[in-house]
Amino acid sequence: MNYQVAASVAAARLGADDKFLAGGQSLLGAIKLGLAAPEGLLDVRRLPELQGISVTGAAVRIGAATPHAVVAASAEVQRAIPALADLAGRIGDRQVRNVGTIGGSLANNDPAACYPAAVLGLGATVHTATRQIAADDFFQGLFTTALQEGELITAVSFPIPKAAGWQKFKQPASRFSLVGVFVARFDSGVRVAVTGAGPGVFRCHELEAALAHDWSPAAARAVKLSADGLNTDLHGTAAYRAALIPELAARAVAG
What we know:
Layout: E1 2-5, E2 18-21, H1 27-32, E3 40-43, E4 53-56, E5 59-63, H2 68-73, H3 75-80, H4 82-89, H5 94-99, H6 102-108, H7 115-121, E6 125-128, E7 132-134, H8 135-138, E8 139-141, E9 144-145, E10 153-159, E11 163-170, E12 177-186, E13 189-195, E14 202-203, H9 205-213, H10 217-221, H11 238-254
Parallel strand pairs: 1-3, 2-3
Antiparallel strand pairs: 4-5, 5-10, 6-7, 6-10, 8-9, 11-12, 12-13, 13-14
């Protein structure tokens, strides 16, 4: 396998069977399991253009190669969107948080990953080297996104909400979300994103409507969700996950 280090975003061009490498927490595991077999890896994790956190106007912008631990420890993120810092600080274990990156997590789009819930729940914008993609358009199903072949995520911009919260019920071994719920309240309304419960991250419109009317734990708990389309596996049934979603939303609202 050919390994190269990218000199810049502008020069980061993949061969036909190559993959970008950032933290590698998803990609390297897939290669070891035989689920991915790229001809080459182009390492982009040290590119300055993909690093750093800034708050400009009403948004927090995070470079795609910024590790989870840096987001969790950022005083700027903690002030602007505490729920986002909380989410980053509970991803995986210490090694994963120090190596894994937000861009890598989003590009992989694992159906139980944490970051997709924050991106969709906050209505963030995913920036690539060539365009901007709204969160509602970015996630397209199981391990599938709107990214085109060879398209590189450079940053993510998160609108700063009036209030937000994150709760997850984790699978103890993997620490992925059995169910994770991110809630956010804006002047324009409420967004609720769920990860781990279905074949991909999704918005829960029933909870959005209830919390827009009454932003309270009681309003969230009063919502009854159908189990249709949710996952059943050895960790929990679809009905179990359907019951967890409103409870976790209530806890997220309560803080």
